[in-house]
Automatic annotation (TrEMBL):
<keyword id="KW-0479">Metal-binding</keyword>
<dbReference type="GO" id="GO:0016747">
    <property type="term" value="F:acyltransferase activity, transferring groups other than amino-acyl groups"/>
</dbReference>
<protein>
    <recommendedName>
        <fullName>Phosphate propanoyltransferase</fullName>
        <ecNumber>2.3.1.222</ecNumber>
    </recommendedName>
</protein>
<keyword id="KW-0808">Transferase</keyword>
<dbReference type="Pfam" id="PF06130">
    <property type="entry name" value="PTAC"/>
</dbReference>
<dbReference type="InterPro" id="IPR008300">
    <property type="entry name" value="PTAC"/>
</dbReference>
<comment type="pathway">
    <text>Polyol metabolism; 1,2-propanediol degradation.</text>
</comment>
<comment type="function">
    <text>Involved in 1,2-propanediol (1,2-PD) degradation by catalyzing the conversion of propanoyl-CoA to propanoyl-phosphate.</text>
</comment>
<dbReference type="GO" id="GO:0046872">
    <property type="term" value="F:metal ion binding"/>
</dbReference>
<keyword id="KW-0862">Zinc</keyword>
<comment type="similarity">
    <text>Belongs to the PduL family.</text>
</comment>
<keyword id="KW-0012">Acyltransferase</keyword>
């Protein structure tokens, strides 16, 4: 049995350097609030507002460092509240996705695309993946134990020397399974 730690991912946004400059001012650098499970990744002190056709969320946490393209990750429940219908996608795959307005203290950006419901996934360091016989992009079946035990299918394996072992699910999935960050899941394959 292969056990992995669970990380529950609330709504958040990854910003490009260009959008950081528009939202916070030219040359602005994000401030680290806390390190995340993946090496080099952090939750920033800064937040932004996001506005959809039907609703708005203030204080959406920015995750750093800056990325090549801006991407907002929400749960399906969040998407309903905003009035948009983003697809379930792997991070970075934003072509053809809905856009949204992002508001910061120095300006705003009308993103033409970039909103997704992140596909559930497990980050594997290459050594863990090799030891367990798991390939990058492999679809896995994972079980969480407890009062609301649940089996997740189509969990994407993401393998890199840059990653640390961690399963990422969103708040809707965590609530359905009755789990929280720090709980564990078992890979069934």
């Amino acid at each position: 049995m292969y056990q992995v730690p669970i990380g529950v991912s609330a709504r958040h946004i990854h910003l490009s350097e260009a959008h950081i400059a528009i939202l916070f001012g030219s040359g602005y650098e994000l401030t680290v609030l806390k390190e995340l499970s993946q090496p080099g990744q952090f939750a920033a002190t800064e937040t932004v507002a996001v506005v959809g056709p039907k609703g708005r969320f203030d204080k959406v946490r920015i995750l750093g460092p800056a990325r090549g393209k801006t991407q907002l990750e929400v749960s399906q429940t969040d998407a309903f509240a905003l009035g948009i219908a983003p697809p379930v996608r792997e991070s970075g795959n934003i072509a053809g996705t809905p856009g949204i307005k992002v508001i910061g203290p120095a300006g705003e950006v009308d993103m033409p695309e970039g909103v997704i419901v992140a596909a559930r996934h497990i980050h594997f360091h290459t050594s863990d993946a090799a030891k367990w016989g798991i390939a990058d992009k492999q679809k896995l079946t994972v079980r969480v134990e407890g009062e609301r035990a649940l089996i997740f299918e189509n969990v994407v394996a993401r393998v890199s020397e840059q990653f640390a072992l961690d399963m990422h699910i969103d708040t809707d999935e965590a609530n359905a399974a009755g789990v929280k960050t720090g709980d564990t899941a078992v890979i069934l394959k």
